[in-house]
Design a protein that fits this description.
By secondary structure, the chain is α+β, with helices and mostly antiparallel strands. The chain has 13 helices and 28 strands. Strand 19 (253-260) and strand 20 form a beta hairpin. Helix 3 (392-406) packs antiparallel against helix 4 (449-466), helix 4 packs parallel to helix 6 (513-527) and helix 10 runs parallel beside helix 13.
Length: 747
């Protein structure tokens, strides 16, 4: 199961209607108009407006006077209800619109008119700037007679006039063919190759025999040359490709290009400075994800914003949050923590793996042969806590740890010591929406075993890492970890509801043997106690082959235990075998990397790229990097370094998946407040933000409208509406953080 099971909220309940049965008819063969009176020749019926909008006919258009002072797009709207959609059918959604004064953004949606108000398609053009006539094609994910076409026009401080004409929703149209611009056929790491590291590229070509290549410096001088290696048809892209190896060239410099088959690659550097900066940028992402604190513009220019969810209107706040109805009769202060992704939810299971990965980035720096902990020290991240004599990476992780501790069920309550699964809005909100402007009721969701063990594992790990800096906090986290462990043993099979996906991701997990193993491992590494060692050694996970093709993740946490047991000093019996198992896993990923023409340690079964494939590529690379830390073997260092090339442009789409890195990079990740694509007054995601990447399941309507039938690497689109291929999340950036730190240390 994936993290998200429902789409995004479109409008408030005041726009709802009576529930009726959904259609079961097959897709229409002919083009059929689904809207009534989209030309407004004599009347505006059956179009409605919210009560604060006055609309009427004006020169053959529907023109609406929109009040100023509303907070959200959906606070003022025009729309039509009772629209029929057929699952799997393609629709062309078109309209003509203008605004006075020019420049206002309208959110045009096709969605459900009743709870939970799912959105099936949405666009947010800036009127009279992006043109006046708009047309889009999408595929319906549902059968319903209760769809709604809406134009959300609120959120402006000043009153304005919105005019609409030629509104159309045409069914039975052929799907739109999406052709991504992939640029030059020579695909390189657009950021940088290390001088003493591997240097590989991929050439897309029809040629079946070797071709000459040239490496040119910034002046255009040829500094190296050789021949390509034909690789045949690459399954992950369905392209005929050749490999290029120019690793023998080791001189640093900027703006190199690679030339082959009449094509010139995008420019790249040979050097180390980019990864020194990426280590910091990937970590700096977390400050702007913080809940419960105002983000200072002097620390993050362009990203300053008011504190979110601190009980200041319109927020209902996180300071006194009730449970979902029937779940509990108490309230908790769960302020703080990081917003999980592009929404305003906070989740213990995803917070757990993310916190572990940041803490492990620092812990690796303490113990690894190439570790440089001072590069993560106090003052490195420009956060409010900088200057407190605590490493900044620990300060940032503590912001989430304090929230995780607050999610523990209080003493005296049923399930005391367990952890609540998540806290988020009662229903989905739309885009864009600053955290401070979220008006939704917040709710705690039931406690479960997986969340409890995430708390136990991360709190136990924290206890050993914070002890040199704050003994009181370390004592508190260890006590919470022990309490959570005891509660989980008493309630070993309480699982999250896989259908609890309204207002936030479900994050279901019905196998917690890996979480038990992880929590026991962290408790043992911190305490050295025999009881925890015995649990680790008796766990069937301890000797299982856990390094599968997808890599580890929030629902597959055994690797978190195995990597720490292999690298954190301890007296665990059989520790050498643990280390050998990591090296064996790395060997498997190295074999995959060598077999892949694009050189990544990832080859999912049947070429079905999973949700967040980019972070899974990183996680497999981290296993290879850990094998280097264990053995010192050059092949593991080189494999880990080569594996990142895919993320920075050596891929079928010829783009970097990290914002601000590479000539062409992802910068429209799905987010409610990094939403520059929808609202020019808001910023794009900060530099160093990782996009989820290709996802063969393309669950969101926007991706479905563009990517039907996509092959592997092509199942991605850099658009804010594509939450299944292009979201950002705290656990994806934690993977980037850990790998960026490793790469920087190799410089």
């Amino acid at each position: 199961m994936k993290r998200r099971t429902t789409a995004l909220l479109s409008l408030t309940a005041l726009l709802g209607a009576v529930l009726v049965a959904a259609p079961t008819a097959p897709a229409a063969a002919d083009e059929v108009e689904q809207l009534k009176n989209g030309t407004f020749d004599t009347t505006t019926e059956p179009w409605w407006t919210t009560s604060n909008v006055t609309a009427g006919l004006s020169e053959g258009q529907l023109c609406a006077d929109v009040p100023g002072g509303t907070a959200n797009r959906w606070d003022a709207a025009v729309g039509q209800n009772d629209v029929t959609l057929v699952k799997g059918e393609s629709y062309k959604f078109g309209f003509t619109a203008n605004g006075s004064p020019a420049g206002h953004v309208v959110r045009a949606i096709v969605g459900l008119q009743v709870a939970p108000y799912d959105t099936y398609f949405e666009v947010s053009p800036q009127l009279s700037v992006s043109g006046d006539t708009y047309s889009y094609t999408f595929t319906s994910p549902v059968d319903t007679t209760q769809a709604q076409v809406g134009f959300q026009v609120g959120g402006s401080a000043d009153a304005w006039r919105f005019c609409l004409d030629n509104a159309s929703l045409l069914g039975g149209v052929p799907p739109e063919v999406y052709e991504p611009d992939t640029g030059p056929r020579v695909r390189v790491n657009q950021v940088a190759y290390l001088p003493a590291g591997p240097k590989n590229a991929t050439l897309v070509t029809d040629a079946t025999t070797k071709l000459p290549w040239q490496l040119k410096n910034a002046a255009g001088t040829v500094v190296a040359h050789g021949s390509t290696l034909p690789r045949g048809t690459d399954a992950s892209s369905a392209q005929n490709v050749h490999s290029i190896d120019f690793g023998a060239y080791k001189k640093p410099g900027k703006d190199f290009t690679l030339v082959a088959d009449g094509e010139t690659s995008r420019p790249f550097d040979i050097g180390t400075s980019a990864y020194d900066q990426l280590r910091l940028d990937a970590l700096k992402y977390y400050y702007t994800q913080r809940s419960g604190i105002a983000i200072r513009d002097d620390l993050r220019p362009g990203y300053g914003r008011a504190a979110g969810h601190v009980d200041v209107a319109p927020n209902q706040g996180d300071g006194n949050v009730p449970c979902q109805p029937g779940v509990c009769d108490y309230r908790l202060d769960v302020t703080g923590g990081w917003y999980d992704a592009g929404d305003h939810g906070k989740y213990v299971v995803n917070g757990g793996i993310s916190t572990w990965e940041l803490l492990s980035t620092y812990e690796r720096a303490l113990h690894a042969r190439t570790g440089r902990p001072w590069k993560l020290g106090d003052g490195t991240l420009a956060i409010p806590e900088s200057g407190n004599k605590v490493p900044d990476i620990l300060d940032e992780a503590r912001w989430e740890l304090e929230f995780l501790l607050k999610m523990q069920v209080p003493d005296g309550q049923p399930l005391a010591g367990m952890a609540h699964h998540k806290i988020h809005d009662e229903t989905w909100t739309g885009l864009p929406l600053l955290p401070s402007d979220d008006p939704q009721k917040r709710e705690l969701h039931p406690a479960n075993t997986a969340a409890t063990l995430n708390l136990a594992a991360t709190a136990a790990q924290a206890a050993r890492l914070y002890r040199p800096y704050d003994k009181e906090f370390a004592t508190r986290t260890l006590a919470a970890a022990r309490k959570a462990w005891t509660a989980a043993l008493a309630h070993p099979a309480v699982y999250a509801d896989p259908n609890d996906g309204t207002g936030g991701g479900a994050y279901p997990d019905s196998d917690v043997t890996d979480e038990f193993y992880w929590a026991a491992a962290e408790l043992y590494l911190t305490t050295g106690e025999k009881a925890f060692a015995d649990y680790v050694l008796a766990s069937p996970v301890h000797t299982a082959d856990i390094f599968g093709p997808l890599g580890y993740d929030w629902a597959r946490t055994a690797a978190a235990a195995r990597l720490d047991l292999a690298t954190v000093p301890s007296k665990l019996p059989g520790r050498d075998k643990v280390r050998q198992s990591v090296v064996k896993g790395a060997d498997g990923y190295l074999a995959t990397l060598k077999s892949e023409a694009y050189g990544m340690p990832y080859a999912p079964t049947d070429n079905l790229y999973d949700w967040g494939s980019n972070h899974q590529i990183l996680h497999n690379g981290i296993v290879i990097a850990t094998a280097y830390d264990i053995t010192g073997g050059t092949k593991y260092r080189d494999g880990a370094l080569q594996g990142i090339d895919y993320l920075f442009g050596r891929n079928a789409l010829n783009m970097s998946y990290v914002t601000g890195y590479g000539e062409v990079n992802s910068h429209n990740q799905h987010s409610r407040w990094y939403a520059h694509q929808l609202d020019p007054s808001l910023p794009a995601p900060p530099k160093g933000t990782l996009a989820g990447g290709p996802n063969s399941s393309i669950q969101d309507p926007y991706a479905q409208s563009k990517l039907q039938g996509c092959t592997g690497q092509f199942c991605y689109i850099d658009d804010i509406q594509s939450w299944s291929t292009n979201e950002h999340t705290i656990n994806w950036n934690s993977a980037l953080t850990r790998m960026a730190s490793f790469v920087a240390d190799q410089g």
